[in-house]
Design goal:
rod-shaped, mainly alpha, single chain
Length: 280
């Protein structure tokens, strides 16, 4: 940047050189005029420099304000993203807890129903026959009449009891015993509300034994007999997985499409969509 002093020096140097070269000497008035012009130029240069400094200061201040605003916005955005991530994580944890509590409640409810059936059967069972003392025999008379021991046979376990017993055996790894229990339940109580679960776990028992064909047939029976059951979506999805594992791609796609179409709100529908994307 050119300073006023430098500007005066640049102007005076050629003037003085010109006067020395020509041998002419300026009058006092000429020198005064020149000094006035130089003073005016110096003042103008100062004003221009001051104006430029003010403009530069304003630009710097505006840039600083913009930078501060961007920094503040970045901090708020980062905080908002962190809050959103935290909220989503908390929601996920709550959903997991709700699902766990729901599962525990259903299992507990099933246990209570089985106990109620057991108590109900105990209450309805007839009391054991009391021992009857033999009637005295008259001399020369016939023997005492036999005691009346006829009574109703005690009722067997109800569907919930059978289900709990079979499920317990399945959890212990006794798949053959579990299958027998589930089959007994389905034979005696085909219309029980626990029947869809029994059919599902019967298929699961076959699957645990490695009998894929029987397991697949069992899962298909769940869908065919109990399409409105919550187990139907899972059974249909498992059917699709078995078809995919057997390289039956077209049939597997149909099964997964049916899961999405028939049970769009189920968790299996989300899994089926993923499988469909893999099979494209």
């Amino acid at each position: 940047m050119t300073t006023p002093g430098t500007l005066v020096q640049r102007v005076m140097t050629p003037v003085l050189a010109l006067m020395a070269a020509t041998g002419c000497f300026a009058t006092r008035q000429d020198v005064q005029i020149l000094q006035n012009d130089l003073t005016t130029m110096h003042a103008q240069a100062q004003r221009d420099d001051s104006a430029r400094r003010e403009q530069i200061d304003r630009v710097i201040a505006q840039l600083q304000m913009a930078n501060d605003s961007l920094h503040g916005l970045s901090l708020r955005t980062t905080k908002s993203l962190g809050d959103v991530r935290g909220d989503l994580f908390a929601m996920g944890q709550q959903l997991i807890q709700i699902q766990e509590l729901t599962g525990q409640s259903q299992a507990r409810l099933q246990e209570l129903r089985a106990k109620l059936e057991q108590r109900g059967a105990a209450l309805t069972a007839p009391p054991p026959a009391a021992a009857v003392a033999p009637a005295p025999v008259a001399a020369g008379g016939p023997g005492a009449a036999p005691a009346d021991t006829s009574h109703a046979a005690p009722a067997g376990p109800g569907p919930n009891q059978l289900y709990e017993l079979a499920l317990d055996q399945l959890r212990r790894g006794s798949t053959a015993t579990a299958r027998s229990g589930f089959q007994d339940l389905l034979q005696k109580y085909p219309n029980a509300d626990i029947a869809p679960d029994a059919q599902f776990y019967l298929a699961a028992a076959y699957e645990d034994e490695g009998n894929k064909a029987a397991a697949d047939s069992g899962y298909q029976l769940v869908v065919a007999r109990y399409p409105a059951s919550p187990r139907a979506a899972t059974a249909l999805y498992k059917h699709g997985i078995m078809l995919q594992a057997g390289d039956k791609t077209a049939a597997a796609k149909t099964a997964f499409d049916d899961v999405v179409r028939l049970y769009p709100q189920s968790d299996e529908a989300v899994l089926a969509k993923d499988r469909l994307r893999e099979l494209k």
